[in-house]
Design brief:
Elements (H helix, E strand, L loop, with lengths): L14 H8 L5 H15 L3 E11 L25 H13 L4 E6 L7 H12 L4 E5 L5 H10 L3 E3 L7 H7 L5 H14 L2 E8 L6 H14 L3 E6 L16 H14 L9 H6 L3 H7 L4 E2 L25 H14 L3 E2 L15
Helix pairs in contact: 1-8, 2-9, 3-4, 4-5, 5-7, 8-9
Protein name: Iron-only hydrogenase maturation protein HydE
InterPro entries: Aldolase_TIM, BATS_dom, Elp3/MiaA/NifB-like_rSAM, FeFe-hyd_HydE_rSAM, HydE/PylB-like, rSAM, rSAM_sf
Cofactor: [2Fe-2S] cluster; [4Fe-4S] cluster
Length: 345
Amino acid sequence: MLEKDRIFNFEKIDVEYVAHILSTDKYDQELFEFANEVREKYVGKQVHIRGIIEFSNYCVQNCLYCGLRRDNKKLTRYRMSLQEIIDRAKLIASFGIKTVVLQSGEDFSYTTDDISYLIREIKKLNVAITLSLGERSFEEYKVWKELGADRYLMRHETANPQLYAALHPNDSFEIRKSHLFYLKKLGYETGAGSMVGLPGQTPYDLALDIAFVKELDADMIGIGPFIPHPDTPLANEKGGDLKTCLKMIALARIAVPTANIPATTALGTINPFGRELGLKWGANVIMPNMTPNPYRPNYSLYPGKICVFENDTACANCVKQIIKRAGLIVSDDYGYRKKEVVIAL
């Protein structure tokens, strides 16, 4: 029987027990049911839609798993103009979507003032803004928060410091942690999250990821599979599996009951029903890709990415159908994290 109090805990989870859950299929049905019980109690049946604009695929980093890595010379690079980004945000708002996500590689050609301008203009559309720009300066985070940016998403990918260092040249898990905790201090809704199936990753490593989002009290938790990209050093590795991703989503829901957790596009890439299953296992956010063509196919984090050639209306309608098929409700609000006090179930 699943020992619920070892993962649903006010202070900290039992890392060894979480690793055990991840290493066996014995508790899968109980885990699924418990995650849905927690979701029902703390975030209900509403699913929030966030429209993503992937506005630049340039990146100064050289992460071993990522198709946007600096040394990938096969990728056609692009940068959207500020006006193109604003026009896309207007389109997202016109669909009734209440959050615009501005995402890019770590591209410092967009200055502090450029991002500030985007925030000022997009806030006029009466939407929430999520920034996902990688590691920028602490001063920039402060400026953008004061201008009205609501959320900052920066996945930590793995909470194993040695694995993190091996995958991220010239970076460290401690640096990533310092950025995430500073973003929390500034009052951003702060998003972390991990990749499942990285080379050398163990169930204990994945349990550390759950423990870290609990420690951070992450407002958003993005979990998806590692999908090997052919133009990276990890091209021949195996990649992550759907079931482990779903279990990680369920564990994240239980560990941080009020967090907003997306059913990621990567889930839908490894399985046609991946996003629907993610919602059924505890996720409550879905993020349609609203990057315009011809740019969209070149934001190539991993191969085979779904929703690359669909038109915008089709994408917006598709995610609504996914939500309904999962037996959930399309939210029409801004999707801020609920702040109810966590009580025992």
